[in-house]
Specification:
Length: 438
């Protein structure tokens, strides 16, 4: 694809005004202003066309403006926009809660709390596990991203800048090592490691600073998202869950990024057979772009009394109907397409990585894939500057991708993506790499 001249005239003007009037906290590296989208494609205000492999950070999983989702939104918008789930009942909230109870791992004896975002889901989960267990402490992982509100930010341990200057944070949270097997901090090699990172929790942490009888829950992304699309080894969560069960510690799966079909299964924890989280947090892909977040827990755990938690907008009827349409599309066709296209994309990226020694690990599940950009093959030292250059070059050639972790590029197309679109994306990445190598 020919290189675009970005930003265009209209975008330039909007970017100038944005800099004056919109919070400076957002990090937006792409020199474009998006106007509209359809399927895997978006157009900017200057009519430049882009293949979108970022999907609004794994939100527009059914593709931009899927007709079934748009229809559900339009029909509900004609009927009722808002009534507040906090004070009134309406059918779409109950329909969606029932559906989520059915499709999450475990039996359907569950209840659902609705918020508006991933962070709100995580906040609700923090409150619920503390309330239910009457314990104060929480475990979370290094590299984790759970959101930017105070509770969620306190669990987050991804990048220094996300916390710096905002303390004091919520007390009682202890971070533990994520199974970064390809760079194990215990210098052990899977599968001979006997899960040294899990033994550390029991043998060191629980015996020194963090009595297990005070720990309410462990929060985990089954596949770490912002931290770099890290997939823990097989058996990891089975082993971890044994430890948690031994001490009566709840397991909270943050599926905000990896859930709702992104990995080819409805929930990424399903890659670890037999694991039933006590609480599941979802948001992002749940309603294809409409704001909604939810936590799902069994009825025994979610038995907090009236008045303990609520949200004015959470479980908005339009978002609920969009979510129901989204789930139907996932069940009918998209989960299968995600598995097929995910295999196709990861193979293509692995093949590409053979030609460039600065592409390190290529990893992921389904259409949640990342490749790591490194300085050289021997040290495998991350190369964030080169990563950012590649992302920029791809954008100029019409492909939108995002970074994650220290130096990875994530590939998260719409779950409707097809082979031709993937071939084009690979061609653009390849052209970008060639230009940069020169
Ligand atoms: C795993 C995970 N949890 C929580 C969040 C926070 O979601 P939100 O930005 O909707 O608050 C994110 C956002 O990227 C996430 O990836």
């Amino acid at each position: 694809m020919d290189k675009l001249n970005l930003p265009g005239i209209k975008a330039k003007k909007i970017i100038e005004e944005d800099k004056q009037f919109v919070s400076s906290s957002y990090g937006r590296p792409h020199p474009i202003v998006i106007d509209r989208g359809k399927g895997s494609w978006v157009w900017d205000v200057d009519d430049n066309k882009f293949l979108d492999f970022s999907t609004g950070i794994s939100v527009c999983n059914t593709g931009h403006c899927h007709p079934e989702v748009v229809r559900a939104i339009q029909e509900q918008a004609e009927l009722l926009l808002h009534m507040s789930n906090s004070d009134f009942r309406y059918p779409s909230v109950v329909k969606l809660a029932k559906k989520l109870a059915e499709i999450t791992p475990g039996d359907s004896n569950k209840r659902v709390f609705f918020g508006n975002s991933g962070a709100e889901a995580v906040e609700a989960a923090i409150k619920l596990v503390r309330w239910y267990t009457k314990r104060k402490r929480i475990l979370a992982f290094y590299g984790a991203f759970h959101g930017r509100t105070y509770g969620a930010m306190s669990l987050t341990a991804s990048k220094e800048g996300q916390r710096k200057g905002f303390g004091p944070l919520v007390p009682g949270i202890t971070h533990i090592p994520y199974p970064y097997c390809y760079r194990c901090q215990f210098n052990q090699t899977y599968p001979k490691c006997n899960f040294a990172c899990i033994r550390y929790i029991e043998d060191t942490l629980f015996k020194t600073t963090t009595p297990p009888s005070e720990v309410a829950a462990l929060f985990a992304e089954p596949i770490q998202g912002e931290g770099g699309y890290i997939v823990p080894p097989p058996d990891y969560f089975q082993e971890l869950k044994k430890l948690l069960d031994k001490y009566g510690i709840l397991f909270v799966a943050d599926e905000v990024q990896a859930g709702m079909g992104r990995t080819g299964k409805m929930f990424s924890i399903e890659y670890w057979e037999g694991i039933i989280p006590d609480v599941i947090c979802i948001a992002k892909g749940l309603a294809s772009g409409m704001p909604i977040g939810a936590i799902i827990a069994n009825r025994d755990v979610m038995s907090w009394p009236e008045g303990t938690h609520a949200s004015t907008f959470g479980g908005n009827p339009v978002s609920c109907e969009a979510a129901l349409a989204t789930i139907k599309l996932l069940e009918d066709e998209l989960l299968e397409n995600t598995c097929n296209m995910g295999n196709y994309l990861i193979e293509k990226l692995k093949k590409l990585s053979n030609d460039y020694d600065f592409i390190g690990d290529v990893r992921g599940r389904g259409l949640m894939i990342a490749c790591e950009i490194i300085k050289d093959e021997n040290t495998k030292e991350p190369n964030p500057v080169l990563r950012d250059e590649i992302i920029n070059e791809c954008c100029l050639r019409g492909l939108l991708v995002l970074g994650c972790g220290k130096s990875s590029i994530r590939f998260i197309p719409s779950l409707t993506v097809n082979k031709e679109e993937i071939d084009l994306a690979i061609e653009i990445v390849s052209d970008s790499l060639k230009t940069i190598k020169k």
